[in-house]
Amino acid sequence: MMFLVSWRAGCRTGFPQIGNYHIRSLPSRPALKISEVQSTMRIKITPSSRTAECSLCRHTEFSQVADRDRKSNELKTVVCKKCGLVSHECIPSNQELLEYYQEDYRSEYNGEATPSAYRVLREWDRGQALVKQLGSYLAESSDVLEVGSGIGCTVKSFELAGHRSTGIEPGRGFCEYSRNVLDADVSEAILADLPAEERYDMVMLVHVLEHLNDPMSSFEHVHSLLRPGGLFYVEVPNCGAPHAAPPKMFHYAHIFNYASWTLSHLGQSTGFDVKEVISSESNKNLQILFQKSNTRNDSRSFDMNGYEKSCASLTRYTNLTYHLRWNYVTTRMATMVHHLCGRIRAERRLEKLIKSFPEKSDIDSGIRRAA
């Protein structure tokens, strides 16, 4: 794949491995002190050589916050010294991303090209949660679009809730699963493929925005798809929390890393009002519901302390102190138990769930009656 050659050239270094960590070489000293190990696991702010404009505020000064991704491959990550947006130092092209997401992303990032029964059930629970969370904002039989719909569980959940629900997904394996197994209305496409027509009451980007290489253009295109007053739900990993330990925070698939101040700025500078910040500042996922407006005002949305806040969030923990947080320990234990129980008889439970779906014609008839 051209993407793999051009973007990752020289990134696979084959370092020796100890546990889950790769290292360049073993230290010449007999051992490292605990405090020294901690300090090497904290994100450090250093000068960056990037000169390209920030995708959010067009500033041209950056600091580097990492030179490796979560798998110890070479990946330089920077933070804008004006607005605080965190991103790759080198942004991949549209063609590189298209080829990657069509062929390699799902198997490499999720470990499977076609979803397992357990993964489908997890995504189904997430889709149901979104219906419960966002359904009260929608009128009956609303037109809902999910961009990057993955397996299609959220699309199907909103359909079963009585909405005209569709999705687009560039990954072929997951797209085929959506249509053939869940009978969800999902097309193999990307956001740029959709014509600029005001036809939707709500558009959702659930853990998708961080994968897009031009957030301003993406938001502007979503703006063109929404009817007046339409809703735009965005969910991303919360860089302000932060959402992961320092060595695991950055990934080559996550081009941008957002906090509440940068995501709000992005929305308000592209014609959206912040209707509700659903998540708390400490939540590992950032959830914001925007509403389409007719005004764009950079001055009202720009956080003059964005850079300082981003740096403070990124350097808040060492690898050790992140994992010793009581909230992390309890949440992690509960997640492990949930995963273990969830895998039990997952295939049978999924089969039962799919059989419970009403016929497509019955759903469509109900939507037409409600409309």
Descriptive account of the structure:
This protein starts with a helix and ends with a helix. Helix content is 38%, strand content 19%. Among the domains are: 43-91, Single Sheet (N-terminal domain of TfIIb), CATH 2.20.25; 117-223, Vaccinia Virus protein VP39 (Rossmann fold, 3-Layer(aba) Sandwich). The protein has a 7-stranded mixed β-sheet with strand order 9-8-7-10-11-14-13, sandwiched between helices. It has 15 helices and 14 strands. The protein is an alpha/beta fold and 371 residues long. The longest helix has 18 residues, at 117-134. Strand 4 (62-68) and strand 5 form a beta hairpin. Helix 5 packs across helix 14.
Q: Please give the order of strands in the largest beta sheet.
A: 9-8-7-10-11-14-13
Helices, by number, come to 15
Which residues form runs of ≥5 with pLDDT under 50?
A: 1-40
End-to-end span in angstroms?
46 Å
Text of the CATH class of the domain at 117-223 = Alpha Beta
Provide the helix percentage. 25-40%
Beta-strand residue percentage: 15-25%
Our Rg estimate from Cα atoms comes to 21 Å
Largest β sheet strand count, sense and barrel closure: 7 strands, mixed
List the keywords.
alpha/beta, N-terminal domain of TfIIb, Rossmann fold, 7-stranded mixed beta sheet, globular, disordered N terminus
Please render the helix and strand layout as text.
Elements: H1 2-7, E1 17-18, E2 21-22, H2 34-40, E3 46-47, E4 62-68, E5 74-80, E6 86-88, H3 94-103, H4 105-110, H5 117-134, E7 143-147, H6 153-160, E8 164-168, H7 172-180, E9 186-187, E10 200-206, H8 215-225, E11 226-237, E12 256-257, H9 260-268, E13 272-277, E14 285-292, H10 298-301, H11 306-314, H12 319-323, H13 326-342, H14 346-355, H15 360-370
Parallel strand pairs: 7-8, 7-10, 8-9, 10-11
Antiparallel strand pairs: 1-2, 3-4, 4-5, 5-6, 6-12, 11-14, 13-14
